Amino acid sequence: MAFVAVARASEIPVGQGTFVERDGLALAVFNAGGGRFYATGPICPHEDGPLSEGWVEGGAIICPWHGFDFDLVSGACGVDPELAVPVYPVRVRDEVVEVDLP
Ligand code: FES
Description:
Distance between the termini: 5 Å
Radius of gyration: 12 Å
CATH architecture: 3-layer Sandwich
Number of strands: 10
Shape: globular
Structural class: mainly beta
Strand order of the largest sheet: 2-3-4-8
Bound molecules: FE2/S2 (inorganic) cluster
Number of helices: 0
Helix content: under 10%
């Protein structure tokens, strides 16, 4: 595991996400506001929607296709408890968002 730079904090608008690929791993990285950033898998487990094109609402990401929500911290789905997305530790250093890749 190692923290890897994935984006400048200013590149991701508050409430939105971006798609990132690093070291062969695809991620969705979200800006929840207040300097809080989160990283998840980029694919919605419902019907493979593009989670990085979703948005942050409360403590969850909303999938743009059918509106399923996924907790930013746990990855658990609020609609279907059988579904979840992987989540990765994130830190911000010198305005650069870094994700701890497995
Ligand atoms: S594909 Fe994401 S909610 Fe359906």
